Amino acid sequence: MIDVASLQQLLQERDKLRPLDWHFARFLSELGASESVKIAAALASRALSRGDSCLPIAVLQEQLASLGWELSLDAWAKVLRESAVIGEDKPLVFDGERLYLNRYWQFERQLASRLSCGPQLKPPAPSKVKPILNRLFGAVKAQTDWQRAAAALACQRQLLVISGGPGTGKTTTVARLLALLQELALKEQGACLQIALVAPTGKAAARLSESMVNACYSLTDSPEAVVESIPRQASTIHRLLGVIPGRHHFIHHAQNPLLVDLLVVDEASMIDLSLMTHLFAAISSSTRVILLGDRDQLASVEAGSVLADICEFIEAGPSGKVCDYLHRCGAADLEPALEPVPAVADNLVMLRHSYRFDERSGIGQLARAVNRGDSPRALQCFDDKSFSDIDWRDLSEASYRYVLEKTVSACQHYLTALQQGQPLKEVFQAFTQFQLLVALRQGDFGVEGLNARIQQQLYQRGALTAAKGWCVGLPVMVQSNDHAQQLYNGDIGIFVQDSHGTLMVAFESATADAGIRWLLPSRLPEHESVFAMTVHKSQGSEFNEVLLLLPHQGGGNPTRELLYTGITRAKTHFSLIADETSLRRACQNRTRRRSGLAARLRSLT
Questions:
Q1: CA 340 to CA 207: how far, in whole Å?
Q2: Strand order in the sheet with 55-56
Q3: I want to staple 348 with a disulfide (CB 3.0 to 4.6 A). Which of 13, 184, 314, 483 is the partner?
Q4: CA 239 – CA 219 distance, rounded (Å)
Q5: pLDDT digits (tens, 9 = 90+) for 511-568
Q6: CA quadruple 341, 374, 296, 349: dihedral sign
């Protein structure tokens, strides 16, 4: 067995340890941790920074065995169980298979308990639900209408999770579902439910607000009082919970819960384990929760993959009790699961039919092929000349120049709208017509290099004009949360001059006058230009046309989830610039975050 100092050097050389990880390990060493536990603690800390909520000891053993640190799984388990720094009230927790930092072990346990709670409400009689369902969704179809099933299930379940790809009607389903619940509440209680709409980012909240406005227009068969009771304005999760500056806690928590009857949470795939746990802790046991999201998208930036973990049971099928209720409501005729299923499985609905991307849609066919990891089919999609909404260029110097020229040309549309004095809402709409997406932050293929080149070309063409040290027309993306300004990581603003000629930054807002918030440049949080953005930062957004650039030969280790997310940001056209190796590797590589949440949910039947 090699010595600890040599092992530390090897881990740092392989970019597996950061100084922070080693400082944490040294702190535990001062509390009595052995050399073995010290190494395990450093790797558990490093795993958290990579999005894993825990470190399975099988992974720990494999990592260290490859470096010459030979210790069996049984030996590791014994070392961890007997350590003075590992236990339920200690910095680390070992559950027999996984090593956690204590806080994340607590998060997993708390969240699993809340997600697996049975109904705390008395569901309305099916005879009352059925006629409203028929009015909202029309006649029962031969095939299962999962939108209809989701609405009926919301009447019975405290928690409802609706997953589906773009264009599957998640927001439309929620609007009708809320109309159903509000009408029942008015008839049975004489008052409507208090409903809140939230999303992880300001950008996603604005998009949810817009979608709800459009969806509510279709509720022509519902009473006016019902339609008016459905909220259209969404906020961020942080704003709803109430941020306490300088602290990791919120105003609303278990002892001061939110006063809402129903909470709708959009873009749930973007929510990390910590935030989701705080959100569920801040709602009372009687509050209904509806989570919306696409389980196949990239996981959250921070640790955890909550939506994917929950949806691991989405194919299991509901229990007989749920099937019976849906049948009596006239919502769906389903076969119950043959074996006992986790309690959370009764709360899951998968919307599979895309109303945006049909069989003639290259975007839809390509996204499905990538989702299956079927790279031959993905290549066939690009070769199929009947698909006019997708195209692929092999990576070369010429295609790289094409990326720059295409982006510069696309920017002219929103810049022209700005120069002509068009309303800023229309300027933002023009900006979202096209977006360049990339996988990396640094280098020629990263956002930093590309943004600098594109901005320089726009300067040279006179499309951007400097003013008072800033640049009128420059689009910027906020890089960190600023609760005082109510700006959050991923929010996009554009530098403009107001009616007095003062240089300001304009942000779209669902609450401000004319839908625009104004901010002085000096108050702008950490930010960067955003002619190009990473695929991660594009989540929660949609663009008419998307151009995705991947590094050569699989650089940056692209994954299936990254490629799928990039493809599904496009509404009308998707272009890929990549070599075949990168495309195939992206289809083959899956993002597998290490977590114990699914195992905990599985054990709660």
A1: 39
A2: 55-56, 98-101, 92-94
A3: 314
A4: 29
A5: 656 678 888 888 888 888 899 999 988 887 889 999 999 988 766 678 889 999 999 9
A6: negative
Backbone angles phi and psi of 255, in degrees to 5: -90, -10
Backbone phi, then psi, for 39, in 5-degree steps? -65, -45
| Token pair of 285 as six digits | 């046991």
- Could you tell me if 173 and 151 are in contact, meaning their C-beta atoms sit under 8 angstroms apart? yes
Structure tokens at 160: 């409802």
The residue behind tokens 């535990």 is 28
Q: What gap in Å lies between CA 233 and CA 20, rounded to an integer?
A: 41
- Report pLDDT digits (tens) over 30-78: 888 888 899 899 999 999 988 999 999 999 988 888 887 888 899 889 9
CA separation for the pair 19, 107 (Å, rounded): 25
In this structure, are residues 334 and 153 in contact, taking their beta carbons and an 8 Å threshold?
Answer: no
Place of tokens 């749920």: 322
pTM of the model: 0.89
Q: Which residues on neighbouring strands pair with residue 164, listed in sequence order?
A: 351
Both ends of the chain: CA-CA distance in Å?
43
CA-to-CA distance for 461 and 169, rounded, in angstroms?
42
Structure tokens at 226: 């019902």
504, β-bridge pairs:
496
Report which secondary-structure segment, H or E, holds 328: helix 320-328
Q: How far apart (Å, rounded) are the C-alpha atoms in residues 161 and 593?
A: 20
Residues 326 and 152: beta-carbon distance below 8 Å: yes
Length of the chain: 605
Q: Show contacts of 564-568: CB within 8 Å, 24+ apart.
A: 564/296, 564/297, 564/367, 564/370, 564/371, 565/297, 565/298, 565/535, 565/538, 565/539, 566/437, 566/535, 566/538, 567/363, 567/366, 567/367, 567/370, 568/165, 568/166, 568/294, 568/297, 568/363, 568/367
Q: How far apart are CA 17 and CA 9, in angstroms?
A: 9
Distance, in Å, from the CA atom of 239 to the CA atom of 464, rounded to the nearest integer, reads: 34
